[in-house]
Amino acid sequence: MQELRETDPRTIGPYEVLGRLGSGGMGEVYLAEARGGLRLAVKVVRAEHAEDRTFRARFRHEVRAAQTVGGAGTYTARVVDADTEAARPWMATEFVAGPNLRDAVLDLGPLPADAVRLLAAALAEALAAIHAKGLVHRDLKPSNILLSPDGPRVIDFGIVRALEGTALTRTGVVVGSVGYLSPEQIRNGAQVVPASDVFSLGAVLAYASGGKEPFGEGQDSVVLLRILTGDVDLSAVPEEQLPLVEACLRDDPGARPTPAELVAAAGHTTGSLREGLRAGWYGPGAAKEPAAAQTGARWVPAHDSGERESRVEYVAPVTVTDVPAVTHVSPTPAPPSRRRLLRAVAGGTGVVAAGGAGGWLWLRDLSDGSVQGRAGAGAGGTGSVTGTPATGWQYKVQGLGGRRGPCAALSPDGTRVYVGGADGSLHALDLNGRTVWRTALGAEAMSPLATAQGVYCLLEDDQEGASKLCALCWGGKVRWTRAFASNSQFLVTAGQLILVSYGDGSDAGGVRAYAPDGSVRWSTPTGPAPTSEPMVADGVVYVGTFGDRVQALDAKTGKRLWETAAGLDTGRPALVGDTLVVGSGGEEMLHGIGRKGKPLWNTTNDKVYGSRYFTCVPFGGLGVTASDYELAALDPADGSTVWSFQFTDDGTQYSNPTVSGDTVYVRHGSTLYGVNRKGKQIWQKRVEGGASVGTQSPVVRNGRVYVATADGITVLALDS
What we know:
- This protein has 12 helices and 41 strands.
- By secondary structure, the chain is of the alpha+beta class.
- A hairpin with a 6-residue loop joins strand 33 (630-634) and strand 34.
- The radius of gyration is 26 Å and the shape is globular.
- Mean pLDDT is 79; it is low at 163-175 and 285-391.
């Protein structure tokens, strides 16, 4: 740990900062402490990444996914909390008292044979836990493995993916650390499979057992070339570990062992692994926890302590072009020509973006795929006799504004479609996808709302909250605007009132109700600001706050009816039957509360993403929520999973679900699924236009489904 600088924050969210743990390409890592004494490692994103919309969207998605991994027996550091909407997004993981693997080997030398077997089995268990949630680590390396007294902990799983596709990398990249990338990450421009992590694990075990980088050191382009051609040096690896390491380093991903096979190959079971991982497990003389970590005092390492920038990603000056793709037709395919690769590396232009010991690898020259806002109309398709929707028309607006809420709005009579665009405009369309009007509003227009009085939308601020509420007439003319800071991204109605949450940051805020003419009907402070949009049901407004509570307000007057504690940074409630189901940070991240404010239950559920970003919708008496790999239905009586439906496509981006009749609609990747009340798929249909980076929910109206895409919306016809 390093001493805090004058420019370092003293608090991050609700946590007190104690010192610096490291820094690098993605951001700064701090040691922080929660109010109850829990110590956390908090990673704060660099300002340049925070300003990149693509990075923010990916970071939000990967943090949500990472929050589903962790806990006892997984050998991963659990993600405890995060704020992906902050000016500088951050995430907090369990603080692991111990060195990272790189430091341990540098300070103590290679690990003993028994320790390597324990390490191999525990890391395989960690990968199994990560892969079970539909994630791939992508950057397994010695500095991302922390050695605690009761076993290793893998950190930063999946988070490196947030850096792909950002403004820095839109020409096509491979993200990861030189020397631990798999061949397919280099050949295929960061396209990875779970077996890619197994290759990285092989390189990690070679380093841990031999004390040498298996693909050597030197210029990044040379190390890349060694990986591609299989030029690996395992001379320092003890003979006992060679078979395991060599199996992991096979060029063909399909020929590598699975994590379960690795545990067995290391000679362990779950029980024997737990028994073997005790204090001192990674070798005699292992570094002990500094006294300051026990006393709470801050300490600074000596100048030569080996403290280095680690646990973060970085950029390297290398361009590799013209690398031939390899189709694996046998376990030992012929490697590409070494001379051709050398010529390709030598001919590439060097792009220096930052210093560091590893790097971004610029490997391909792809267009960024950006599309100017335009409307494309086409004939609507005809639904099949089985009810499978056919593709209708698409409308492009440079991507939807905001990250959540309905993807579009329809006028009360169903003849107009309204879309908020990242192009800074609100668009009105007819049912054939033709532009009726387009009004420039000066900032990203988020999920619109159409009522009998007109059309409303929030304008996004530079922190992905809202800075202004706009009201437009049916002809597209702005009637009035109201400026305020808000954590809302979409609007909610209570009768004729338009409700928003307000608050600049997390310290103070409330809920405000606007009349159709723009006057404030009521405004109720909530103390600490709301974390998200309010929810309205049966004349009551429910809202979660940064004060760790759910509050209930009278929808007509704003009078506070009750408030109830629920975790940390309580999210937006959903009413399922007579139970408010709400997510939060903290140990127990799912809560049930009665309509009158009575706490009913607090629990965890591995099938859902907790935290304040948890979202569910009522469906058949259950609460249905989506993640990046499945749809899950929760019992409002206790938060347990009643059924789950796993997505079958290869995508990772997903939408929040929408219910219409006996079907729940959800987009995953480029596929729209229809699922019935028993969790069975009714149909699926490809969504043209690419996957949206947000979680905007589909809109179902008059036999059509409107679905968010990378550039705007796609319309699918449910019937003829």
